[in-house]
Amino acid sequence: MDCNDPSWKTKSEEDFENNRFQIPHLTEIFVDDVSIPSTFCLKSRRSPVITEEFVEGYQSDEKWNGYVNNDDKVLLKVIRFSSPTSAGAECIGPDCTWVEQWVHRAGPRENIYFNPEEVNAAIVTCGGLCPGLNDVIRQIVITLEIYGVKRIVGIPFGFRGFFEDGTPEISLSRNVVENIHLSGGSLLGVSRGGPSVSEIVDSMQKRGITMLFVLGGNGTHAGANEIHNECRKRRMRVAVVGVPKTIDNDILLMDKTFGFDTAVEEAQRAINSAYIEAHSAYHGVGLVKLMGRNSGFIAMHASLASGQIDICLIPEEPFQLYGPHGVLRHLKYLLENKGSAVICVAEGAGQNLIGRTNAQAASGNSMLGDIGVHIQQEIKKYLKENSVPAEVKYIDPTYMIRACCANASDGILCAVLGQNAVHGAFAGYSGITVGICNTHYVYLPIPEVIAYPKHVDPNSRMWHRCLTSTGQPDFN
């Protein structure tokens, strides 16, 4: 963007709204299709004994219906930075000129694209486990039924379920999903990888699927976007809608993703155990490894929430173990002055300190070395060489956290995301995902949220808050 162009700001705002964040709609392919009145009723249920005088100034039931207009927008960025040196500043131009960026508001529309009697909906959960998967599945099914959909199926074990023999689809209804949110995991099962996009769409055509709800992270959403594009290429009337699922909270533009709050809360149990072990031993060291392949949000938030962490290590902040400014030197200082220490490390942190392998997971991601075990061994070695007696306790709660039920906060988030995913599909949008942005629920085009993972900003206020809490120095 040329900031010397007098009209650059207007052009930037137009490009943002009309190009980058314009969400795809099926009428772009089927131009003659018309909408129909919604079957999702939102009439208020006001008591008939309340007089009109009491509700003067409020719309009557006949005028209010609670639907969202297609032109409703949510402001993506709400802070107007006055200086590029402000914490976390994102500026366009040297004077931090404000550029309004609006995205589409999520919710039920007064007119819908699909006739519920003709809808054949499918749900698939991909990637790894995450607290809240069953909550989202439950709300998608319940909302579909309220619209009047009769045919709802679950595809077992991720995208593999479209192709693998011996994995029949699962018929879903309110009775089937009523209590699944009381259990962790996914009713449908999960897996990584799967058949080609062409094979998946072939299977969708064979099954007559008209709505596909895809629950997964960045890689899964990339696959969902390819499925959307292939369906458009074949001129199929199919709405493909994603629900971002990543326990690491590393999806762009969103306040948070479901499962993150639960992960941070459950991580407190492991941190508290490490704290007790460390403080109950002579020169005790508690070491906790938490999830966070590329982003350290869980480690940062868990450290800040617990108030028991002395050292927090995340992928975004390189560190040294040895040397005058290394982690081990500071650990020795803590043991000599406090008598104990607790360390929290994200799984993706310090990978440069471990010999890399060329092994890859089914998702295509490279296999990480175990930084927790590596640090544990180096701590023991260093303290022994420096004649500092110590006990090191290592805790890795990764799979315990992934497999648990969603907490209350995530349960609410999952409910609203699942409902809004269905509203978006019935409105005729495809190639979109639903998320929460500045406390409001929005629809975003998938390519914008998977451009790259969201990372902890080392200059952000939240990371500075974490450093204030731990009191740790710069380990570079």
TrEMBL record:
Binding-site positions, substrate: 246-248, 291-293, 347, 399-402
Gene3D superfamilies according to UniProt: 3.40.50.450
Ranges for domain Phosphofructokinase: 121-423
Name of the featured protein: ATP-dependent 6-phosphofructokinase
Entry binding sites for Mg(2+): 218
Alphabetical keyword list: Allosteric enzyme, ATP-binding, Cytoplasm, Glycolysis, Kinase, Magnesium, Metal-binding, Nucleotide-binding, Transferase
Regulation: Allosterically activated by AMP.
SUPFAM superfamilies: Phosphofructokinase (SSF53784)
Highest taxon, organism lineage: Eukaryota
InterPro entries per UniProt: ATP_PFK, PFKA, Phosphofructokinase_dom, PKF_sf, PyroP-dep_PFK_TP0108
GO biological process: fructose 6-phosphate metabolic process
Species this protein is from: Aquilegia coerulea (Rocky mountain columbine)
Binding locations of ATP: 128, 192-193, 217-220
Active-site residues, Swiss-Prot/TrEMBL: 248 (proton acceptor)
Catalytic activity: beta-D-fructose 6-phosphate + ATP = beta-D-fructose 1,6-bisphosphate + ADP + H(+)
Cofactor(s) for this UniProt protein: Mg(2+)
Pathway: Carbohydrate degradation; glycolysis; D-glyceraldehyde 3-phosphate and glycerone phosphate from D-glucose: step 3/4
E.C. number(s) listed in UniProt: 2.7.1.11
Gene: PFK
Top-tier EC class: transferase
One GO CC term on file: cytoplasm
Site (Important for substrate specificity) location in chain: 219
Subcellular location: Cytoplasm
Any one GO molecular function term: ATP binding
Similarity annotation: Belongs to the phosphofructokinase type A (PFKA) family. PPi-dependent PFK group II subfamily. Atypical ATP-dependent clade 'X' sub-subfamily.
General function of this protein: Catalyzes the phosphorylation of D-fructose 6-phosphate to fructose 1,6-bisphosphate by ATP, the first committing step of glycolysis.
Subunit and interaction comment: Homotetramer.
